[in-house]
Design brief:
Elements lengths: L1 E6 L7 H5 L4 E7 L3 H11 L3 E3 L2 H5 L5 E4 L6 H10 L3 E4 L7 H14 L3 E3 L7 H11 L6 E9 L16 H4 L10 H10 L5 E8 L14 E7 L4 E7 L7 E9 L2 E4 L9 E4 L13 E2 L4 H4 L2 H4 L3 H4 L7 H14 L7 H18 L6 E2 L17
Parallel strand pairs: 1-2, 1-4, 2-3, 4-5, 5-6, 7-10
Antiparallel strand pairs: 7-11, 8-9, 8-15, 9-10, 11-12, 12-13, 13-14
C-alpha cells in the first residue's frame, strides 16, 4: 500500500482521484488551520493529522502532495525529498529563479519522483488535441495561445479581513505570475520544444490601483525551433471568468476553445471543404472524439470521471503513482516544471524593463552552475 500525506487542505481536491487508484491510501493530512484540519480529516476518513509539517514527514508516508500557498512549495518539496518521500507539487514550482535552480539540484540529489501537478494538461479536450498533434492532424504546429482570465481581487484578504498571501505573491507581482495553466497544454502540443526567450507587456493598473499587478499582461514565448506562444493573464478585470482558453495553429488546421455564451470547442482542417479558405467553416471538435480521445479517457469509470477539473484530476494522480510504481518519467518532471514556472518570473523582469526580451536558461540534467543565471 502506497501511503500519501497531503500538506495544505487545498490538496484535498485530489482525494477523489486518489480514492479511485488501487493500492493507494491517504493516511495523513497537515494544515495550520486546526478546525479545518479536524473537519476535513473526519470527512475524508484520514486517520493521522498534523499541524507541523516536519512531524508528518517523520511518519511512515511514502509520498507527499504539496498544496500550500506557492511561496511555500520549494521549501516543503525539498523537505519531503530529504525525508525520502516522493512529491507531487501544486503550481508553481517556486517563486524565485534561485529556487528553481536549487529545486533541480535537489531532485537530482535525492533521486525521488518529483512531479508538478499542472492539471490543465489533463483536461480531456487538451489530451485529445495532443493525440491529434501526435498523429499529424494539424501538420506542423507553430503558434498557440493560452489565457487565464479570473478576477481574484476578492482573494487579496482572508474572510477575517487580514491580508492574504495572494496580495503579495500574485497581485503584488507584475507580469504573468501564474503561467502554467495556460502554458502546460501548449508545451505538451509543442513536444516541450525548449523556450528560449520571454517578453511581456502590460496594460497598466486601471481597475484596482492598489495592486502592483496590471489588469492584463501579454507574454510572448519563442521556442528553439521558432514556435510562438502567446499567453494572456488577467486576474483583475471585471468580466466573466475563462480559466482555459487555448488556440492551436498548424500547417493543416486550427483549433479554438470556447469563449462563452454557448460556444464550444471547434476545429477546422484543410481536408474539410477541399482546403478552400473561402469555404472554411468551424466544426465541433467533439465530432472527432471517438477517433482521437485517448483510450484511458474513453474507458474511464464514472468514479474516475468525477475526480474533478473536467474529468482530468484522476489521470494526473494516476501518472504520479505510475511514475513511482513503474519507475517511469513523471508527466511533468522537474525540468519542465522549472521552465514553465520561469516564464512567469522572467515575464516580471521583462515587463519591469519596458518589454525587454529575456533569455530563458536551459533547464536540464546536470545543468552547470555558470548557466544558472538570467541573461538580459
Amino acid at each position: 500500500m502506497l501511503k500519501i500525506g497531503i500538506v495544505g487542505a487545498r490538496g484535498l481536491s485530489s482525494m477523489a482521484g486518489l480514492k479511485a487508484m488501487p493500492g493507494v491510501e491517504v493516511s495523513a493530512l497537515c494544515d495550520i488551520d486546526n478546525d479545518l484540519l479536524q473537519t476535513e480529516s473526519k470527512k475524508h476518513g484520514i486517520t493521522k493529522t498534523y499541524r507541523v509539517y516536519e512531524d508528518m514527514l517523520a511518519s511512515d508516508i511514502d509520498a507527499v502532495i504539496v498544496a500550500t500557498p506557492m511561496q511555500n512549495h520549494f521549501q516543503q518539496v525539498v523537505g519531503a525529498l530529504e525525508a525520502n518521500k516522493h512529491v507531487l507539487s501544486e503550481v508553481t514550482a517556486g517563486v524565485t529563479m534561485d529556487e528553481l535552480f536549487w529545486l533541480v539540484e535537489s531532485v537530482e540529489k535525492y533521486s525521488k519522483v518529483y512531479m508538478m501537478a499542472e492539471n490543465y494538461m489533463y483536461i480531456p479536450e487538451n489530451q485529445m488535441l495532443n493525440n491529434m498533434v501526435n498523429q499529424g492532424v494539424f501538420g506542423d504546429v507553430y503558434f498557440a495561445e493560452g489565457e487565464y482570465l479570473h478576477n481574484i481581487a476578492a482573494l487579496a484578504t482572508y474572510p477575517n479581513g487580514s491580508t492574504s498571501w495572494r496580495s503579495f505573491w500574485q497581485l503584488g507581482k507584475r507580469g504573468c505570475f501564474y503561467p502554467t495553466h495556460s502554458l502546460g497544454p501548449v508545451m505538451q502540443w509543442f513536444k516541450n520544444d525548449p523556450i528560449v526567450t520571454v517578453q511581456s507587456v502590460g496594460t497598466g493598473r486601471n481597475t484596482y490601483k492598489q495592486f502592483r499587478q496590471e489588469d492584463t499582461s501579454i507574454t510572448l514565448c519563442k521556442t528553439k525551433s521558432g514556435k510562438l506562444i502567446e499567453l494572456r493573464l488577467d486576474c483583475l478585470s471585471k468580466r466573466p471568468h475563462n480559466f482555459a482558453y487555448y488556440s492551436l495553429q498548424g500547417t493543416k488546421g486550427v483549433y479554438e476553445a470556447p469563449r462563452g455564451l454557448g460556444d464550444t470547442h471547434k476545429i477546422w482542417l484543410d481536408i474539410m471543404d477541399d482546403g478552400d479558405p473561402d469555404k472554411a467553416s468551424w466544426r465541433p471538435l467533439d465530432e472527432l472524439r471517438d477517433k482521437f480521445m485517448p483510450e484511458r479517457y474513453l474507458n474511464a469509470t464514472d468514479e474516475q470521471r468525477a475526480a474533478g477539473h473536467w474529468g482530468g484530476d484522476f489521470f494526473i494522480v494516476q501518472d504520479f503513482i505510475w511514475a513511482i510504481q513503474k519507475g517511469i518519467k513523471p508527466a511533468i518532471d522537474v525540468y519542465e516544471a522549472c521552465e514553465w514556472t520561469a516564464v512567469g518570473l522572467l515575464s516580471e523582469l521583462s515587463i519591469m524593463n519596458n518589454g525587454q526580451v529575456i533569455n530563458m536558461p536551459h533547464f536540464r540534467s546536470g545543468m552547470p552552475k555558470d548557466e544558472q543565471i538570467i541573461q538580459l
